[in-house]
Design goal:
Low-confidence stretches: 212-227, 232-252, 277-282
Number of helices: 11
Order of helices and strands: EHEHEHEEHEEHEHEHHHHH
Mean pLDDT: 77
Number of strands: 9
Strand content: 15-25%
Length: 294
């Protein structure tokens, strides 16, 4: 039977968490068929051994993708999603976990509201050791509708391990993602509508070993700056209304740094050049580089 929902689980060296993750997905309170696709990125701890045991016990439900070499968190996530067959696709990092009603609540919402393409939900934050970081006092009062401009203005609204979206031929294969979860969220909301559900339907582990977030944000400040610049650049190409603003922002940022003689990272500088190229083309870059070199 073809699954209605595909849950994609990228993992790497998460022997401490992967069992709780898989058990939480297997224990879902939902009647429609679903599959679990686990992509192990050549783990060097006991993660793969644990996965093989689950694959044997839940053959037909759990599909294992066992990489022979490490391809990195982004490509490993894309690899898992390329095997998804469901009408709806979910994501769960190997150190995170679902609450029992998670799939049912999101599935029901998207089935009843066809104008929405994606649904995130609120989560509880947990320390690596398992201690709860927040409580229901921080719970959202109501669902929040989301459009593309909301993400461009304020950044991510929901954890990547909380999303469920309709698969409508959205392309996965690309080597250009830097911050995959945020960039893919922008693609989902391009000319579409999303929602952040107020329900807390899962646990998000902060700072755990092997997590996608910790892998990508080793140099957090510079990464965030470069991420934002590249994200804007990707959308500037097809969104004329952003060209003037984004180009102006990049030039002001660059020249402020140079005038103050601040030391800026090579990655940050590259990001600005990348942004200006897509916003205004190579002629602007050549002009700026000439001024800088004088």
């Amino acid at each position: 039977m073809k699954p209605v929902i595909s849950v994609c689980v990228p993992t790497f060296n998460q022997e401490k968490y992967i069992e709780k993750c898989l058990e939480s997905i297997l224990d879902q309170d939902i009647e429609v068929p679903y599959e679990i696709i686990v992509a192990d990125d050549c783990s060097t701890d006991a993660t793969r051994e644990i996965l093989m045991g689950y694959g044997e016990r839940y053959e037909g439900i759990i599909k294992l993708i066992l990489n022979n070499e490490n391809i990195g968190p982004t490509q490993n996530t894309l690899l898992a999603r390329s095997h998804a067959r469901g009408k709806y696709i979910c994501h769960c990092d190997g150190d995170d976990f679902f609450y029992r009603e998670k799939l049912r609540v999101q599935f029901d919402f998207l089935e009843q509201n066809p104008e929405y393409v994606v649904a995130w939900h609120d989560v509880h934050l947990y320390r690596e050791c398992g201690d709860l970081l927040d409580n229901d006092e921080a719970k959202l009062k109501k669902n929040i509708d989301l459009k593309l401009e909301d993400l461009l203005a304020f950044g991510s609204w929901g954890a990547n391990s909380s999303l469920m979206y309709r698969y409508n031929g959205i392309p996965f294969e690309t080597d250009k993602y830097l911050m995959y979860d945020f960039e893919f969220s922008l693609i989902l909301l391009d000319n579409s509508k999303g929602v952040l559900l107020s329900n807390k339907l899962g646990g998000y582990r902060v700072g755990s070993v092997g997590s996608l977030t910790s892998s990508l944000l080793s140099n957090r400040v510079n990464r965030q700056r470069l991420d934002q610049l590249r994200l804007w650049a990707a959308f500037v190409r097809n969104r004329k209304e952003y060209r003037k603003f984004v180009g102006f922002f990049s030039l002001i940022t660059l020249f402020k740094s140079l005038l103050k003689r601040e030391k800026i990272s090579k990655k940050y500088f590259t990001g600005i050049i990348y942004l200006m190229y897509f916003a205004h083309g190579p002629s602007l870059i050549n002009s700026v580089l000439k001024k800088i070199s004088k």
